[in-house]
Q: What sequence folds into this?
């Protein structure tokens, strides 16, 4: 079997798995389902992917590749300031998260798995089939790639004056990334009615962007509260 044919069959199987993971969820999907959807024998499916976990990690790698493309697309236009890049990236990141749900969830799942992997005691909680997948090691090697591009955007901003010069690019970008993950996760709760808090998604989104920009530009200022004389009655 030639390389091109092998790659073609791998793609057919992976595409089928992604469709099923999206429609049915990971737990409800079986390798039989994948083989039938891909119109490939079950034996051949196992030849290319050891198990369902291996397939999910292959999809996760594809998800990181797609997310990296989002970063690259923003960074390639060097005519803008670093702050403009980060602002555009924030908007495109949320679009990716909302528009590619299965990919974005796979990214978050892997980041959570890495947190367990870094602790020898917690590592035992990871499914052994995940650790045995060849895609797992590849993901360990590449999962910082997006942040590296993001840090380059921050570094560019510190040079062109749009971002505070004293910021560490890596620390600053990982802080931005943490904010974006939190923002995306809270979009649902903020949009849900009824709620006691006086906040709407339409006003929160521009407010979040402004706060992010102010943090990077350094326009935060400590305000000294002046004592006010007043009467309770």
A:
């Amino acid at each position: 079997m030639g390389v091109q044919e092998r790659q073609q069959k791998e793609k057919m199987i992976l595409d089928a798995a992604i469709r099923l993971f999206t429609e049915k969820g990971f737990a409800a999907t079986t390798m039989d389902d994948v083989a039938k959807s891909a119109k490939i024998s079950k034996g051949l499916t196992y030849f290319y992917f050891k198990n369902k976990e291996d397939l999910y990690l292959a999809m996760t790698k594809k998800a990181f590749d797609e997310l990296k493309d989002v970063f690259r697309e923003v960074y390639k236009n060097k005519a803008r300031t670093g702050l403009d890049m980060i602002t555009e990236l924030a908007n495109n990141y949320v679009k990716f998260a909302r528009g590619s749900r299965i990919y974005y969830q796979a990214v978050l799942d892997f980041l959570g798995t890495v947190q367990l992997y870094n602790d020898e005691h917690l590592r035992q909680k990871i499914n052994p089939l995940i650790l045995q997948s060849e895609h797992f090691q590849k993901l360990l090697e590449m999962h910082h790639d997006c942040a590296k591009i993001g840090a380059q955007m921050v570094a560019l901003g510190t040079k062109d004056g749009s971002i505070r010069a004293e910021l560490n690019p890596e620390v600053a970008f990982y802080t931005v990334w943490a904010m974006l993950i939190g923002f995306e996760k809270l979009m649902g709760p903020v949009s849900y009615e009824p709620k006691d808090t006086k906040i709407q998604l339409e006003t929160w989104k521009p407010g979040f962007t402004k706060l992010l920009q102010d943090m990077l530009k350094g326009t935060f200022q400590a305000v000294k509260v002046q004592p006010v004389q007043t009467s309770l009655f």
